[in-house]
Amino acid sequence: MPIRHALKRALRGLYARALFHTGAHALVDRIMPRRLLVLAGHCVAEAGNAPLGPNMRIGAAELERILAWFARRYEVLELRRALERLAEPGKRSLVALTMDDGYRDNLTQLLPLLQRLKLSATIYLESAPLDERRLNWTHKYFWLQERIGLERLTALYLERAADSRTKELLRPGLSAYHHKRILKYEAPAPERTRIIDELFRLEGGDERALCDQLYLTWQDVRELDRAGVEIGAHTVHHEILARLEPAAAAREVGDSKDALERTLGRPVTSFAYPFGRRWDYHAAAKQSARDSGFTSATTTHAGTNNPSTDRYELKRVMIDEHTQLHLLVAEACGGFDLLRGFGLDLAE
Ligand SMILES: [Zn+2]
Question: H-helix or E-strand containing 267?
Answer without folding.
Answer: none
